[in-house]
Amino acid sequence: LAQAFVTLATNDSYARGAMVLGKSLRNHKTSKKLVVLIGPHVSDQARAVLHKIFDEVRLVDVLDSGDTAHLAMMKRPDLGVTFTKLHCWTLTHYSKCVFMDADTLVVSNIDELFEREELSAAPDPGWPDCFNSGVFVFRPSNETYGKLLQYCTEHGSFDGGDQGILNDFFSDWATADINKHLPFIYNMSSIAIYTYLPAFKQYGANAKVVHFLGQMKPWSYTYNPTQRRVRGSSQPGLLLQWWALYSAEVLPMLIREYGDQPFNSGCEVRPKHTEQENNHPLVSSAERKQRWEQGQADYMGIDSFDNIQKKLDVFLK
């Protein structure tokens, strides 16, 4: 049986993260298969791009899956996303897998993780006796999947998510076998830079996986591709790596899929003047006024700040 890296995207934002993660694994020449589990809210365009990057794109909707998952979900609706993540244990056509959250980025080849056993993971920076469930090695098994669902329904999760459940279920991780403790370089949280700067300076260059923990995800920022700057971030180094990969390799694929349909690229785009001038005759001033009144100003083109500034300058002179 083959082995695979597995990630999860429940919506289009996380799908972008998954695309960047998949590309980063490919760019670092993984020999393993790539699998992404997606929720029903992922758009057709995002699915099409995922199909180009991943070997397998599997739609997992807890409410449509087998009876056990359905019953578990009825009892614990609060754990919806968690149940979706636990689906990774049903990938029994693979002998061993490494799960990676969609907000991780690979910065070198990590195929050696497949030498580890279930459940191997790195310590959580917030509570090192717990492992962080952003990166873990596991063996797909319908039996384990069933037991995890049952455990979920009976005990819930102490943190409301999958990390609490997995730590309770694989409760001997902290004490039983040091080989199941992945070095922090396989799941280095971007927060670690603040919490232990000397260690980051000493070991950070060896990091193999960066995990963008916290509420602000890489795709929550705005990126200026011409200046290669991430807006509003005090720690741009790692974020820049994410954005460089996204804008160079993922965004062109998304643009092809969306065609003329507008979508939020996350990049600040300044159209060339020639395009703006060509666009001017297409909209009459009456139409333009009507659009403004309806709140549909063309901020990227004719109604851009630069153009308004020019009009004001002319008027004020």
In words, what does this structure look like?
This protein has 317 residues and is an alpha/beta fold. It folds into two domains: 2-182, Spore Coat Polysaccharide Biosynthesis Protein SpsA, Chain A; 273-316, no CATH class. It is 40% helix and 15% strand. The chain is built from twelve helices and eleven strands. It has helices at residues 12-27, 44-53, 67-75, 80-86, 142-155, 162-169, 192-195, 197-203, 236-258, 273-279, 285-293, 305-316, and strands spanning 2-9, 33-38, 56-59, 94-100, 104-106, 120-123, 131-138, 188-189, 209-211, 223-224, 229-230. The strands form three sheets. It has a six-stranded mixed β-sheet with strand order 3-2-1-4-7-6, with helices on both faces. Strands 5-9-8 form a three-stranded mixed β-sheet. Helix 1 links the parallel strand 1 and strand 2 (33-38). The longest helix has 23 residues, at 236-258. The protein is globular, with a radius of gyration of 23 Å. The model is unreliable at 270-283 (pLDDT under 50).
